[in-house]
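S.,

Sequence below, as promised.
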Amino acid sequence: MKIYYKEVGNPDKPVLVFLHGGLGNIEDFNSVVPLLGDAFRIIGVDSRGQGKSSLGVEGLTYERM
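The prediction came back faster than expected:
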């Protein structure tokens, strides 16, 4: 499987990692990213099988997520 992530914001600032919950994806944070982009380097991650991340050949379990 392939895990999708995206980096935005100021690369010289502290890192802020966005991890969505439930059945969401990194687009859940689109409204707050513009407010924080100057103060942080933001990394958003789509969990396995959600958003733009692929599921892979094995079934999805909590452990694999």
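The first strand starts at residue 5 and ends at 9.

Coffee later?
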